[in-house]
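pasting for ref
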Amino acid sequence: MLAVHEWALAEAVISTVSKIAKREGLKKITEIKVKVGELQQIDLEAFQFALNQISSQYAINATFRFEIERAEFKCRICGHVWPFDKNSLDPEAREAVHVIPEVAHAFIKCPRCGSPDFEVVSGRGVWIESVRGER
């Protein structure tokens, strides 16, 4: 079953790529590089499937390349920096963070001082790194 979250993200990516292609005068898009923040916990297989399905509706026949950006947090209280470990979350918390990454503060605490007051230094979001094509 295709996750609704991955489908919505794929629609946003393809819509944005179409706008970029129009703005840049690209007649054919050959490659789309997408960066995925680890905190999003995207099912890449489902995301790839959705991208392929939606891109065909826009007559985009491009290769998709993915790069995962590791998630890292920094405690605002003690300054400790640590990586995201999805296995430290129970399944319900993992799903909540997957859908709305901002709720990570309700489930994750600094491993050094226990504070929930931290910033996401990296690994949040999904964005288009580059679009290649022919004019």
